[in-house]
Automatic annotation (TrEMBL):
This is Redox-sensing transcriptional repressor Rex. One of its GO terms (molecular function) is DNA-binding transcription factor activity. InterPro entries: CoA-bd, NAD(P)-bd_dom_sf, Rex_actinobacterial-type, Rex_DNA-bd_C_dom, Tscrpt_rep_Rex, WH-like_DNA-bd_sf, WH_DNA-bd_sf. GO terms for biological process: negative regulation of DNA-templated transcription; response to redox state. It comes from Nocardioides caeni. The keyword Cytoplasm applies.
Length: 229
């Protein structure tokens, strides 16, 4: 799958590269914070935890090749990547479902520092309405439409129980949200043109558990189907 670049509609960047750009951005920010002005592709690859050939290929999609013998200008590359991802602009975001996870997300300072401004916290539970979380008052979910219109919200976060997630997604799409970050353990169905990213920490843990089991020489080393790959 590919993603169309935001800065040049004719240029297409592979989805896997798009997924690594925020990692490069974070690594470059750490380098800049420690006063480093230029870096080699090897330095940046190490900081980002990828191999340097992959990094050079990824950056070539941005038209960024570095300077032979000097490497990459850290600030300029940060700017290029931030522009490509779209985080040089401010993105208003709404969070729906202000329970345990919604509270944690609302309190996460990393959104704002990366250009994501939480403009509204919405919940269906009337007992939560008016409560302040991270300085933002929880509002009724029914207010979604005017909030999206007022702030030009394109990105919505779902932190409701699984049973409510599809309905929340449908309402988001109906009012014009075109990107959804879904934390609920539910597979969402959305129309073409709407992007959904799913975050599931328990799946990540299960993948680690699988590798732990293999390290320990557990059952997954001996396929139950008689050895077929
Ligand atoms: N992806 C992850 O890694 C991860 C981690 C933790 C929890 N979760 C998931 O996140 C979700 C929230 O977990 P939690 O512990 O915060 O739950 P919670 O019960 O504390 O909070 C859920 C909130 O959603 C609200 N809600 C329910 N239906 C709604 C609707 N139709 N519209 C608007 N709001 C609605 C509830 O009133 C409640 O405040 C769950 O689906 C859980 O499985 C995912």
């Amino acid at each position: 799958m590919t993603t169309r670049s935001s800065t040049d509609a004719t240029r297409v960047i592979p989805e896997a590269t798009v997924a690594r750009l925020p990692v490069y951005l974070r690594a470059l920010t750490a380098l800049a914070d420690s006063g480093i002005r230029t870096c080699s592709s090897e330095d940046l690859a190490t900081a980002a935890g990828v191999n340097s050939a992959k990094l050079r290929k990824d950056l070539s999609y941005l038209g960024s090749y570095g300077t032979r013998g000097v490497g990459y200008d850290v600030d300029y590359l940060r700017y290029q990547i931030a522009r490509e991802i779209g985080v040089t602009q401010d993105w208003p975001v709404v969070i729906v479902g202000i329970g345990n996870l919604g509270h944690a997300l609302a309190n996460f300072s990393g959104f704002r520092s990366r250009g994501f401004r939480v403009v509204a916290l919405l919940d269906a539970d009337s007992t939560l309405i008016g409560q302040s979380v991270a300085g933002v008052a929880v509002q009724p979910f029914d207010e979604l439409e005017p909030i999206v219109r007022e702030h030009g919200v394109a990105i919505g976060v779902i932190a409701t129980p699984a049973f409510a997630a599809q309905d929340v997604a449908d309402r988001m799409v109906a009012v014009g949200i075109t990107s959804i970050l879904n934390f609920a353990p539910a597979v969402l169905s959305v129309p073409d043109g709407v992007d959904v990213r799913k975050v599931d920490l328990s799946i990540e843990l299960q993948i680690l558990a699988y590798h732990e089991q293999r390290k320990a020489g557990g059952a997954s080393n001996a396929p139950a189907d008689g050895g077929a790959a």
